Amino acid sequence: MILIDGKKEAGSLRLKLKEEVNELKKKFNDVPGLTVILIGELAPSQIYVRNKEKSAKEVGLNSDVIKYPEDVDEKTVLKKIKDLNENKSISGILVQLPLPKHIDKKKIIDTIIPIKDVDGFHPVNVGNLSTGYESSIPCTPLGCYLLLKKVEPNLSGKKALIIGRSNLNGKPMAQLLLKENCTVTITHSKTKNLKSECLEADIIIAAVGIPKLVKGDWVKKDSIVIDVGINKTDKGIVGDVDFEEVSKKAKALTPVPGGVGPMTIACLIKNTIDCFKRIKSS
Ligand code: GUN
What we know:
44% of the residues lie in helices and 16% in strands. The protein has helices spanning 6-28, 43-59, 74-86, 105-111, 123-131, 139-151, 170-179, 194-199, 243-246, 260-280, and strands spanning 2-3, 33-39, 62-68, 92-95, 159-163, 183-187, 203-206, 224-227, 231-233, 236-238, 252-253. It has a six-stranded parallel beta sheet. Strands 3-2-4 form a three-stranded parallel beta sheet, with helices on both faces. A two-stranded antiparallel ribbon has the order 9-10. The chain is globular. Helix 1 runs parallel beside helix 10. By secondary structure, it is of the alpha/beta class. The model has no long low-confidence stretch (mean pLDDT 97). A hairpin with a 2-residue loop joins strand 9 (231-233) and strand 10 (236-238). It contains ten helices and eleven strands. It starts with a strand and ends with a helix. Guanine (GUN) binds next to strand 4 and helix 6.
């Protein structure tokens, strides 16, 4: 079984990005700038944001985190986003999700100018991805895609099954795999007989948030399994895949932690650099 080492892949991607930032610095006398907005005190969000900032700095980006209390009003955040949209030293804006209930997620996402939308959540970027035009691609599915390509460069004709239909993962993942000529199935909580769907698949992307959902007898021999889940349990963090069981069957599998997670953050840095380049050439 191939253990897909996301930590190692993210490390080499960051190294490549660091070189690219050095080149950009020479060319433009400027480096990409990422601003993350964090609202409230949710522990997982604080950890993600800290890791994002650390990676951005390591690669040589200008990086800034703007923190607001849980009860900040929506207008304040929208005004800040509009200022960042206009700010020439900022190439990427990310508002960490989830948001407090009184803040309208759609309004926040729609206010970020698409060229600085490093998450790829703005409807313009979603539309561009689904129609095959250049766009920011959401960081988690992009990370999954790069790991997948590493173990299987030719995805054409493969049966890919996605568990979960979120805007963050499942839907953009489907677009990326379609572009690679996979035959894509998206499953979700209402899917009947998920096990038999999984048994048909050459590739499984599990992004549903149910601990150890995918069992050893759900996957066929030689399948490639990408585990996006990060579930907190009594026994620590586990993925959506039963690692013990599936590792005995699959051809390749990502661990949790150390699989998709580190790649997601490296892809955010990549997206920030790509936004910078699009801004410079626009
Ligand atoms: N919260 C969890 N994952 C993400 C992500 O990819 N982007 C943002 N903005 N928030 C998140």
